[in-house]
Write a structure and sequence with these properties.
The protein has 503 residues and is mainly α. The protein folds into 3 domains: 2-228, no CATH class; 241-403, no CATH class; 406-496, no CATH class. Helices cover 75% and strands 0% of the residues. The protein is built from 24 helices and no strands. Helix 2 packs antiparallel against helix 3, helix 4 (87-107) packs antiparallel against helix 17 and helix 15 (318-349) runs antiparallel to helix 16.
Length: 503
C-alpha cells in the first residue's frame, strides 16, 4: 500500500512538472516564433517564474527568500527588452535574464547566493548541462516499473519505448523526406494528411522547449541535501611566497616599462608621436583590445595567486600586498591608456556601439580591480568578493539600460558633425529606434547630400519595420512605438528621397 502511494505521489509530481513545462513550450512558440523580442519577453519570464512558484506550491516546497530579491533585476532586465530596441542591449538583457533564471534555479532550494564563490558563478553558464539527467529521471518516473507484475512491466516498457521513439522517428522521417524525393513521395502517398513545414518546425520547437523546462524544473525540485552541501575532499593546492613574488615582480617590471612608454607618448607626447612618423589617431587606434586582454589576464592571474598563495595566520604577507597593489595600480594606468586610445579614435572616426561599450567595460574592470584590492587587504572571504562583483555587473547593465547608449552615440556623432563636417549617415540610420529622436535631426542639416541620403535610409528602414515580423503584438516595444510616431510625422519628406543617389 505504501509503495502504491509512493508511486502515485511520484507520478503526480512528475505530471505537474510535465504539464507546466508543456504550457511554457506552447507559450514560447506563441510569443517568439517569427517575431522579434518585445513585450512578450517580460510576460514570458513572468510565466516561467509563475511556473516555478506554482510547482513549489503544488509539491508543498518552500522556496528560499533570496529568490524574491533576485526577481527584482530579473523583472527589470526582461522589461527593458520591451523598453529598449538596441540590438546589443537587447541581447545583453536577454542573456542577463536567462542567467538570472539559472541562478534562481540553483538557489531556490540550495545554497544562498552570498555563499557563492567565483567558481559557482562560472558554473552557472554550464548549469543547463545538469538538466539532462533529471530530465531522463523524470521521463522514467512517468512509467514506474517497480511493484508491478511482469506482464505490466512489459506493457509499460513498450509504452515508454514508443513515447521515446515517436519524436526521433518524426525528426528522421522529415530529414529523409527532405533528402530524397522518391522517399518523400512514398511518405506522401502513405500519409495523406497535408502538414505544412512551418507546422512541423513549430511542433519540434515546442517539443524541445518543453524538454528543456522538464529538465530545469526537475533539477530544481530534485536537489537533495547531499547535493546542496558539497563535500570538498579534493586536495588543496598552494603557491609559495618565493615563486609568487618572482612571478608578480617580473610582471610588475614589464608593466612598468610599458607604462613609461605610455607616459612618454600617449598621455603627454604628441610631438614625440609625430617624430616617430605617426599621427595621434594612427597611434591611438592600435592596441586597444590587446590592452583590455592584458587587464583581464592580469585579473585572472591575481585572483588565482591570491586564492592559492600561502597565507600567514589567514592574512596575506606585506610583500604580496605591496606587489598586488603595484600591479593593480599599473593595470589601471594601462586601462587609462586603452581608454585614451579609444577616445582619440572616436574623435577621428566617430562613436559606435562597440566603442561605447568598450569604454563602459573598462570602468567595470577598474571597479572589479578595486574590489579585489579590498579583498586582499580587508575582507578575505571569496564569497563576499564574488557577491560584490555580481552586484557590480547587475548595476553596470542596469546603468547601461538607463543611459540609453544608442541615443548617446547619435548625439555625440551629430555634435561631432557640427565641428568636423563628417557624418556617417549609413551607420547613424542603422542605430536602433532608441536613437530616433536624436537621429531625426539630421533631416534638418544644411548639407543636402547628407540630408537626402539619410532620408532614403530611414524610408527603407520604415518599410522593413512594417513587415509582419515587427508588427505583431508580441513584438510591441516602447522605443519602436515612439520612433514610429516620429517617422510617420515626416513620412512624406522621406518618401521624396527614397530613390536618392549621391552625385
Amino acid at each position: 500500500m505504501d509503495t502504491q502511494n509512493s508511486q502515485s505521489n511520484t507520478l503526480a509530481k512528475v505530471g505537474v512538472i510535465v504539464v507546466i513545462s508543456l504550457i511554457l513550450g506552447l507559450f514560447f512558440d506563441y510569443f517568439f516564433y517569427g517575431k522579434i523580442p518585445g513585450v512578450a519577453f517580460p510576460l514570458y519570464i513572468i510565466l516561467v517564474v509563475a511556473g516555478l512558484f506554482t510547482t513549489a506550491s503544488i509539491l508543498k516546497k518552500q522556496i528560499n527568500n533570496e529568490v524574491i530579491w533576485l526577481l527584482v533585476p530579473l523583472i527589470f532586465f526582461s522589461t527593458m527588452v520591451f523598453v529598449r530596441s538596441s540590438y546589443l542591449l537587447t541581447f545583453l538583457n536577454v542573456v542577463a535574464s536567462l542567467l538570472l533564471l539559472l541562478v534562481i534555479a540553483e538557489v531556490s532550494f540550495g545554497k544562498k547566493i552570498k555563499d557563492f564563490l567565483v567558481g559557482h558563478y562560472i558554473k552557472i553558464f554550464f548549469l543547463p548541462f545538469k538538466f539532462i539527467r533529471p530530465l531522463f529521471q523524470t521521463l522514467s518516473d512517468l512509467f514506474p516499473l517497480y511493484g508491478v507484475s511482469n506482464d505490466q512491466k512489459v506493457l509499460l516498457q513498450i509504452i515508454k519505448g514508443t513515447v521515446m521513439a515517436i519524436p526521433a522517428l518524426f525528426v528522421f522521417l522529415l530529414l529523409f523526406s527532405s533528402a530524397d524525393l522518391i522517399f518523400q513521395k512514398y511518405v506522401s502517398d502513405l500519409i495523406t494528411i497535408d502538414i505544412e513545414s512551418e507546422t512541423v518546425i513549430r511542433s519540434i520547437l515546442v517539443f524541445i522547449v518543453t524538454l528543456i523546462y522538464i529538465g530545469a524544473y526537475s533539477y530544481t525540485f530534485r536537489k537533495t541535501k547531499n547535493q546542496i552541501i558539497a563535500q570538498q575532499n579534493s586536495k588543496t593546492y598552494s603557491v609559495g611566497h618565493i615563486d609568487s613574488f618572482i612571478m608578480l615582480g617580473s610582471v610588475n617590471i614589464l608593466f612598468f616599462i610599458f607604462v613609461l612608454v605610455q607616459l612618454t607618448y600617449l598621455f603627454y607626447g604628441e610631438s614625440n608621436i609625430s617624430s616617430q612618423g605617426f599621427t595621434y589617431a594612427e597611434y591611438a587606434r592600435r592596441g586597444f583590445f590587446e590592452l583590455i586582454a592584458v587587464a583581464i589576464i592580469s585579473l585572472l592571474l591575481l585572483l588565482t595567486t591570491e586564492k592559492y598563495i600561502t597565507k600567514k595566520e589567514n592574512d596575506h604577507t606585506l610583500g604580496f600586498k605591496i606587489l598586488s597593489t603595484v600591479l593593480v595600480s599599473q593595470v589601471i594606468l594601462i586601462m587609462m591608456s586603452a581608454f585614451t586610445r579609444l577616445s582619440f579614435y572616436e574623435e577621428a572616426y566617430g562613436f559606435t556601439t562597440l566603442r561605447l561599450y568598450s569604454h563602459a567595460f573598462i570602468i567595470l574592470l577598474v571597479i572589479i580591480f578595486c574590489l579585489l584590492l579590498h579583498k586582499i587587504y580587508k575582507d578575505k572571504r571569496e564569497n563576499s568578493f564574488a557577491f560584490r562583483v555580481f552586484i557590480s555587473v547587475v548595476l553596470f547593465l542596469a546603468v547601461m539600460n538607463l543611459f540609453n547608449p544608442d541615443a548617446f552615440i547619435a548625439r555625440r556623432n551629430i555634435e561631432r558633425f557640427t565641428t568636423t563636417g563628417k557624418l556617417d549617415v549609413y551607420y547613424l540610420s542603422s542605430l536602433s529606434d532608441d536613437a530616433t529622436s536624436n537621429t531625426i535631426k539630421v533631416l534638418d542639416v544644411a548639407n543636402e547630400d547628407l540630408r537626402k541620403s539619410f532620408a532614403r535610409e530611414l524610408y527603407w528602414r520604415i518599410k522593413k519595420n512594417d513587415s509582419l515580423y515587427f508588427s505583431q503584438w508580441q513584438s510591441l516595444n516602447v522605443s519602436r512605438m515612439r520612433a514610429k510616431k516620429i517617422l510617420d510625422s515626416r513620412i512624406q519628406e522621406l518618401e521624396q528621397h527614397k530613390d536618392y543617389q549621391l552625385r
